[in-house]
Amino acid sequence: MSTFIAFLRAVNLGRTRKVPMAEARVWLAEAGLGDVETYIQTGNLRFTTSLRSRVKVERLVEQVLADACGFDVPTMALTPVELREVHAHALTLPAPGGPEVRRYVTFLKAEPDPVAAAPVSAWAEEGEAAHVHGRAVHWWIDRPSQAARLSNARLEKLVGVGTTRDLKVVTTLAERWGGHGQVSTAPSGVTR
Q: Hey, which end of the chain has fewer CB within 10 Å, N or C?
Protein backbone atom coordinates (compact mmCIF):
# COMPACT_ATOMS: atom_id res chain seq x y z
CA MET A 1 0.00 0.00 0.00
CA SER A 2 1.15 3.53 -0.79
CA THR A 3 0.55 6.54 1.43
CA PHE A 4 -0.38 9.95 0.02
CA ILE A 5 -1.06 13.36 1.46
CA ALA A 6 -3.60 15.29 -0.60
CA PHE A 7 -4.25 19.02 -0.53
CA LEU A 8 -7.66 20.18 -1.75
CA ARG A 9 -7.90 23.54 -3.51
CA ALA A 10 -10.42 26.20 -2.46
CA VAL A 11 -12.66 24.25 -0.10
CA ASN A 12 -14.52 25.49 2.97
CA LEU A 13 -13.68 29.12 2.22
CA GLY A 14 -17.16 30.39 1.42
CA ARG A 15 -20.76 29.31 1.56
CA THR A 16 -20.83 27.35 -1.69
CA ARG A 17 -17.66 25.21 -1.76
CA LYS A 18 -18.25 23.18 1.39
CA VAL A 19 -16.51 19.82 1.75
CA PRO A 20 -17.19 18.53 5.27
CA MET A 21 -14.02 16.71 6.27
CA ALA A 22 -15.87 14.06 8.33
CA GLU A 23 -18.00 13.23 5.30
CA ALA A 24 -15.00 13.34 2.96
CA ARG A 25 -13.30 10.67 5.09
CA VAL A 26 -16.36 8.42 4.65
CA TRP A 27 -16.67 9.08 0.89
CA LEU A 28 -12.99 8.37 0.29
CA ALA A 29 -13.03 5.22 2.44
CA GLU A 30 -16.07 3.98 0.48
CA ALA A 31 -14.07 4.58 -2.72
CA GLY A 32 -11.37 2.20 -1.48
CA LEU A 33 -8.88 4.46 0.27
CA GLY A 34 -7.63 3.26 3.65
CA ASP A 35 -6.78 4.92 6.96
CA VAL A 36 -8.24 8.26 5.78
CA GLU A 37 -7.33 11.16 8.07
CA THR A 38 -7.93 14.90 7.81
CA TYR A 39 -6.32 17.90 9.46
CA ILE A 40 -8.37 21.07 10.01
CA GLN A 41 -11.11 22.11 7.60
CA THR A 42 -8.93 23.48 4.79
CA GLY A 43 -8.68 20.22 2.87
CA ASN A 44 -5.64 18.34 4.13
CA LEU A 45 -5.94 14.55 3.78
CA ARG A 46 -3.77 11.51 4.42
CA PHE A 47 -4.67 8.00 3.24
CA THR A 48 -3.34 4.70 1.96
CA THR A 49 -4.14 3.17 -1.41
CA SER A 50 -3.14 0.35 -3.71
CA LEU A 51 -2.71 2.98 -6.45
CA ARG A 52 0.89 4.01 -7.03
CA SER A 53 0.43 6.80 -9.57
CA ARG A 54 0.06 10.27 -8.11
CA VAL A 55 -2.02 11.31 -11.12
CA LYS A 56 -4.43 8.39 -10.63
CA VAL A 57 -4.72 9.17 -6.92
CA GLU A 58 -5.52 12.81 -7.66
CA ARG A 59 -8.13 11.81 -10.26
CA LEU A 60 -9.79 9.38 -7.84
CA VAL A 61 -10.06 11.96 -5.05
CA GLU A 62 -11.30 14.60 -7.50
CA GLN A 63 -13.95 12.27 -8.93
CA VAL A 64 -15.20 11.15 -5.50
CA LEU A 65 -15.50 14.74 -4.29
CA ALA A 66 -17.08 16.00 -7.51
CA ASP A 67 -19.70 13.23 -7.31
CA ALA A 68 -20.41 13.93 -3.64
CA CYS A 69 -20.23 17.74 -3.63
CA GLY A 70 -21.35 18.70 -7.13
CA PHE A 71 -18.31 20.85 -7.97
CA ASP A 72 -14.70 20.28 -9.01
CA VAL A 73 -12.09 20.05 -6.25
CA PRO A 74 -8.58 20.20 -7.73
CA THR A 75 -6.31 17.95 -5.67
CA MET A 76 -2.54 18.00 -5.28
CA ALA A 77 -1.09 14.75 -3.89
CA LEU A 78 2.36 14.10 -2.45
CA THR A 79 4.03 11.13 -0.86
CA PRO A 80 5.24 11.51 2.75
CA VAL A 81 8.80 11.76 1.42
CA GLU A 82 7.82 14.57 -0.96
CA LEU A 83 6.06 16.43 1.86
CA ARG A 84 9.17 16.12 4.05
CA GLU A 85 11.34 17.38 1.19
CA VAL A 86 9.11 20.41 0.55
CA HIS A 87 9.14 21.23 4.26
CA ALA A 88 12.90 20.76 4.60
CA HIS A 89 13.51 22.97 1.58
CA ALA A 90 11.27 25.69 3.05
CA LEU A 91 13.41 25.74 6.17
CA THR A 92 16.61 26.35 4.16
CA LEU A 93 15.23 29.52 2.59
CA PRO A 94 15.92 32.71 4.49
CA ALA A 95 12.77 34.78 4.82
CA PRO A 96 13.20 38.30 3.47
CA GLY A 97 11.90 41.10 5.66
CA GLY A 98 11.37 41.34 9.37
CA PRO A 99 9.85 39.07 11.99
CA GLU A 100 6.30 39.81 10.81
CA VAL A 101 6.79 38.14 7.43
CA ARG A 102 4.23 35.44 6.65
CA ARG A 103 5.47 32.28 4.92
CA TYR A 104 3.41 30.10 2.60
CA VAL A 105 3.81 27.04 0.41
CA THR A 106 1.73 26.55 -2.72
CA PHE A 107 1.54 22.92 -3.80
CA LEU A 108 1.24 22.72 -7.60
CA LYS A 109 -0.59 20.17 -9.72
CA ALA A 110 2.47 19.88 -11.99
CA GLU A 111 6.03 21.10 -11.96
CA PRO A 112 6.06 24.33 -13.98
CA ASP A 113 8.13 24.92 -17.06
CA PRO A 114 11.32 26.86 -16.10
CA VAL A 115 10.25 29.76 -18.35
CA ALA A 116 6.92 30.02 -16.50
CA ALA A 117 8.62 29.66 -13.10
CA ALA A 118 11.22 32.38 -13.74
CA PRO A 119 8.96 35.42 -13.12
CA VAL A 120 7.75 33.88 -9.86
CA SER A 121 11.25 33.21 -8.54
CA ALA A 122 12.25 36.72 -9.66
CA TRP A 123 9.27 38.36 -7.91
CA ALA A 124 10.54 41.68 -6.56
CA GLU A 125 7.64 43.62 -5.08
CA GLU A 126 8.52 45.40 -1.85
CA GLY A 127 7.73 43.13 1.09
CA GLU A 128 7.06 40.11 -1.13
CA ALA A 129 9.23 37.32 -2.49
CA ALA A 130 8.82 33.86 -3.98
CA HIS A 131 10.85 30.82 -4.95
CA VAL A 132 9.78 27.90 -7.15
CA HIS A 133 11.22 24.50 -6.32
CA GLY A 134 9.77 21.46 -8.08
CA ARG A 135 6.00 21.32 -7.51
CA ALA A 136 6.13 23.89 -4.72
CA VAL A 137 6.19 27.67 -4.60
CA HIS A 138 7.60 29.10 -1.37
CA TRP A 139 6.51 32.68 -0.81
CA TRP A 140 6.67 35.42 1.75
CA ILE A 141 4.65 38.56 2.36
CA ASP A 142 4.98 41.12 5.12
CA ARG A 143 1.36 42.33 5.04
CA PRO A 144 -2.11 40.81 5.04
CA SER A 145 -2.58 38.63 1.98
CA GLN A 146 -5.44 40.84 0.73
CA ALA A 147 -2.96 43.74 0.40
CA ALA A 148 -0.24 41.74 -1.39
CA ARG A 149 0.29 41.78 -5.15
CA LEU A 150 1.38 38.15 -5.06
CA SER A 151 -1.67 35.96 -4.64
CA ASN A 152 -2.98 32.49 -5.33
CA ALA A 153 -4.73 33.80 -8.46
CA ARG A 154 -1.53 35.37 -9.80
CA LEU A 155 0.49 32.23 -9.03
CA GLU A 156 -2.05 30.09 -10.90
CA LYS A 157 -1.82 32.36 -13.95
CA LEU A 158 1.96 32.05 -13.94
CA VAL A 159 2.70 28.45 -12.89
CA GLY A 160 -0.59 26.53 -12.97
CA VAL A 161 -3.16 25.09 -10.59
CA GLY A 162 -2.15 24.89 -6.96
CA THR A 163 -3.31 25.31 -3.40
CA THR A 164 -1.63 27.29 -0.64
CA ARG A 165 -0.94 26.50 3.00
CA ASP A 166 0.70 28.56 5.71
CA LEU A 167 4.16 27.19 6.53
CA LYS A 168 2.94 26.48 10.08
CA VAL A 169 0.35 24.06 8.66
CA VAL A 170 2.97 22.47 6.37
CA THR A 171 5.25 22.01 9.39
CA THR A 172 2.47 20.34 11.39
CA LEU A 173 1.60 18.04 8.49
CA ALA A 174 5.25 17.13 7.90
CA GLU A 175 5.52 16.23 11.60
CA ARG A 176 2.27 14.23 11.63
CA TRP A 177 2.27 12.63 8.21
CA GLY A 178 5.80 12.93 6.87
CA GLY A 179 6.86 9.68 8.51
CA HIS A 180 10.28 8.71 9.84
CA GLY A 181 9.99 10.51 13.17
CA GLN A 182 9.83 14.14 14.07
CA VAL A 183 10.58 16.85 11.55
CA SER A 184 12.85 19.68 12.61
CA THR A 185 10.93 22.91 13.07
CA ALA A 186 13.78 25.21 12.06
CA PRO A 187 17.53 24.89 11.64
CA SER A 188 19.66 27.46 13.41
CA GLY A 189 19.79 30.80 11.65
CA VAL A 190 16.51 30.37 9.78
CA THR A 191 13.63 32.66 10.66
CA ARG A 192 10.11 31.23 10.60
A: N
The CA angle 5-82-33, to the nearest 5 degrees, is: 25
pTM of the model: 0.89
Residue closest to 86 by CA, chosen among 159, 166, 174, 189: 174
Q: Could you tell me which residues come within 8 angstroms of residue 83 by beta carbon, excluding any fewer than 6 positions away? A: 5, 170, 173, 174, 177, 178
What is the rounded distance in angstroms from the CA atom of residue 67 to the CA atom of residue 165? Answer: 25
pLDDT tens track for 114-128: 999 999 999 988 889
Within 10 A of 175 (CB to CB), how many other CB atoms are there? 15
CA distance 37 to 50: 17
Query: Would you tell me how many other CB atoms lie within 10 Å of the CB of residue 81?
Result: 12
CATH domain 2-78 topology:
Alpha-Beta Plaits (3.30.70)
The domain segmentation of the chain, as residue ranges, is: 2-78, 83-177
